[in-house]
Structures are given as structure tokens and as C-alpha cells.
């Protein structure tokens, strides 16, 4: 199939981009596009029919990288490949490149962006789960001005976010982890490049007193545990966690999630080598 007809705008700055999104001529159905790795297929299948696409891929505000003592602010148009290749600073002990490496295929990583992944809010995507575990914050700009919020507050549900009309994700701030921080990440996919059926990210940063666990691929918003030290120390509470969150319905899916969460927690105890941090993409038997 081919996309339905739409207008195309390529603004030169952020103000022009928000104006193009809010223009009455777009009838409230304008959408921003950067890498287009999620929106493109939706256009072709006519699952999305915007009256206007606003190309924000090269906006200077969305391509900046600002490094500070507390962390790094990445522009929303930084690609997965730039994280994978180490082309941008990493405020973690090597976690970001390894997560980026496990996203789909290299052709997708060359164009897909971190901001686009958050805006699309696919429950099975790697960045929403990872960024929530790292305590990242989303930076937004729109007609009402600029604001920021935690990733877990930004994602309201499956493919649903807190973006207001005319608003754009401008960047993602990732706090700096201590050198001894440990990170476990596991996802279950039937084959390389497919969407995950279950996933979990765990951060244990004792120097900062941060212990977070996030369960993704939940058909809704990620399940975020901000005080996860007890669960990390004693994973016997996984079953209760899933049941209290309403994720204990289908027995096969329940067992799959339990296994993936257990693997992510177990990864914290192993030596932090590239092999132990690389997301597992093998299927876990239910």
C-alpha cells in the first residue's frame, strides 16, 4: 500500500516546527517525523493518516548533546547507531551502546532516533524500558513553552504519551551512573530484530542509592519499581509483583515474564562484560 496524501514541511528551527504542527491547515492531524522507522510503515499501511508531516530530523535543538556533571542531555534526533558507535558521550558504564546494538537491524538503527522511540511508545521497544530504569527525563517544547518529566510519567499506555498538541520531544536527559553501577537487561524475541514478547531492565547503583526495575512489553505502560533493592536481593517476590500489577493472567506469558525478570536480576551478579550486558534475544520456554 501507499500512504494517504499529506503535506510536507521542513522547518528551520523549533519555533517553526511547533507552528507547522499547530497550523490550522493541518486540521490538528500533523505529525513530526525524524527517522520514520515506526511512522513510515504505519503510513504505508494507512494506520496513520496525518494531513501533514513535519520533518524535525535536522533541527539544531534536536541534534545537540549537552554533557554535565549530573548527566547528559541528548537531542531527540540522536540515532540508535550514534549510541551504538560511541559517537556521543555515555553517562553510564557502557550500558547505552549495548542496548542500542540490540535494537532491530543496523539499517533501522542508522535512521531511528531515541526521541522517535519514546514518541511512538511501543511497549516492546527497548528505549522506553531502558530509560525508565535509568531514571531518564523527557524534555518537551510546544506552544505553551518547555517542560520536562520522568519517562515513566511521559508514557501513559501502549502508543500513548503525554505529548500535547503541537508539542515535540526535544531531548532526553540521562543521569550519570557511578562507575560501579550494574545493569541487567533481558528480552525474549523469537528471532533477531523482532519485537520483544517480554523484557526487563534493572539498575543497581549503590553509590547513588538507586535501585530500579522496569518490566516492558506489557501491552500498556511499563511497570516501574523505583525502590527495587529488596526485589533484587530476593527475586522470590517476582510472582507477587506481576500479580499485583495485573500481569498474572495468561499462564504462558506469566512464566515468560517471570523468567525474563529473573534473568535480568541474575545478570547484575555477573561480571559486567559486553557479553553479560548485551540484551538476550533468545526465546525463553514458557
UniProtKB/TrEMBL annotation:
GO molecular function per UniProt: anaerobic carbon-monoxide dehydrogenase activity; FAD binding
**InterPro entries, alphabetically?**
Diverse_Substr_Oxidored, FAD-bd_PCMH, FAD-bd_PCMH-like_sf, FAD-bd_PCMH_sub1, FAD-bd_PCMH_sub2, Mopterin_DH_FAD-bd
What Pfam families has UniProt attached to this entry?
A: FAD_binding_5 (PF00941)
Enzyme Commission designation: 1.2.7.4
Give residue ranges for domain FAD-binding PCMH-type. 1-179
Question: What keywords are annotated for this sequence in UniProt?
Answer: FAD, Flavoprotein, Oxidoreductase
Disulfide bond in keyword set: no
Keyword DNA-binding part of the UniProt annotation: no
Under what name is this protein listed? Carbon-monoxide dehydrogenase medium subunit
Q: Which organism is it from?
A: Ancylobacter tetraedralis
